[in-house]
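In full, the data.
>
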Amino acid sequence: MVCATVLLAGCQDLIEPAIENNRQLDASAYIPSDSRFPYGILLNGYNRIPTNSWSFNDVATDDAVSNDQNNGYLKMATGQWTANNNPANQWTNCFAGIQYMNIALGEIDKVQWVADPATNKLFATRIKGEAYGLRALLMFHLLQAHAGKGANGQMLGVPILLKPQTTSDNYNLPRATFDECVKQINQDLDSADVKLPLDYRDIASGQASQIPAKYGKVTVEQYNRAFGVTFSGLFTGRIAKAIKAQTALLAASPAFNNGTDKWADAANAAAAVLNLNGGLNAIPSNAASGLTWYSNATEIAGLRDGANPPEILWRNNWLENRELEQANFPPTLFGNGRINPTQNLVDAFPMLNGYPINSPQSGYNPNDPYTNRDPRLRMFILVNGATAGVNNTAINTTANGPTNDALNKVETSTRTGYYLRKLLRQDVNLNPTSASNQRRYKPHIRYTEIALAYAEAANEAYGPTGTGSNTYSAYDIIRAIRRRAGIGLTNNDAYLESAKGSKETMRQLIRNERRLELCFEGFRFWDLRRWNADLTEPAKGMSIQNGVYTVIPAVQDRIFKSHMKYGPIPYSEILKYSALVQNEGWN
């Protein structure tokens, strides 16, 4: 969650927003010089960003199950997903945020932000850019959650709202087409980009030539007051470009593509972001920076407010707590073991030589399944015999294990034979006698996500080794990501070399790398749907007893019908507004 007090710290001219801004828009109700009203409304948009918290929607896929029987995504996956019971619903949240952004856009020019006219104009420009960007981001999440083929056969998005709705307005609005919504998102992102700096930074005294020309003739002091490092963490031009890449990937994907080839557009949008950070060099080559950003204690401790480590393009403010560990550590570490990775996901990690475990060249031994595997397996998943926690406690997940960490031993035990490791700080102590917290943050966008988006789109547009107008290929991206993980270093990644001759083989490899690199970060649920992939793969587990490894073929079935590749329009909205067309298959 973006914190108002942090965002406004250091700016003498802005007053911290009032706790509540329940005011009418008529002139008698608010004073134009009072900046608290529109800026408080703008902050509401930040607070509504869906990626502010972890969804763990992996539980509704073949990547994870939960031992929490009340988990909403578990209920979705087991046949209880309906138009009026939708844990993935973003309709109310995002439309409320859009309403706030529309109000803010109508009020910004009425406000005296600071006394100096030139600086006041800069403030208004920045805040407009933020509002346009946040409106686009909220629309993207609406499309991801609710766009789809309507019962009328059209590929539909959501109603497009560009001004505040009042009590006298017509609320019975039809859904715009999917492509119209994408066009509006891009227009808003362009408006944000032209108003915002690439990043917030202070320009040194005497370096006025570094002020972007689009802001006119202003002094360094005036520029820094409106666009200086104080505002790091707010929406920027770099973020606008990244959301444009996310939107382009969604639009090009099989479930939403209306028959036109949009892959080149998606590749170029992702490349535009990567090229700001050195192209291929945007992927941190250091495994610690790129893979374990969530547990790099020194790096996290050294982050100033709003600053980003190399892997992170945009994040929320850091917090200091132990909530993720409390939910997901094994029982012997005083955790609740909530998110249990599946055997399906474990099997997706290749061997150290780069070959999938089902390849004859892999050397995979089903009686010793965790040896010589992709190092990311043990980084992200707690397997039997691995250690965890402040005391490096060995975790026994066997079926006949002596502790509550054992398979299905108690309510908080694993259901699959695995516990979550990724995202957790192993230096958190949950022991009630010596409990401790640690710092953490939640990324909104990582460079690896954008790199994988480029690889997916470039492969479809140009083939595995084609570059289009760029200087690197899908193959180059995947090679860099796999080498960072330590894959195929002794054999020149022979499997990747064999895959680069086929778009279809490379497509499967890219999708698998995306599954591994972004696991438990809220992508798999949406990726399977936009790919038109199988949603009904049962969640598997591993039972180990007396040294014998036996795959559990169905820890949980996945009950999804074909129309569920698209989320529904909320049933309550369909009842209220006759102009809304429901997605086909939903009641």
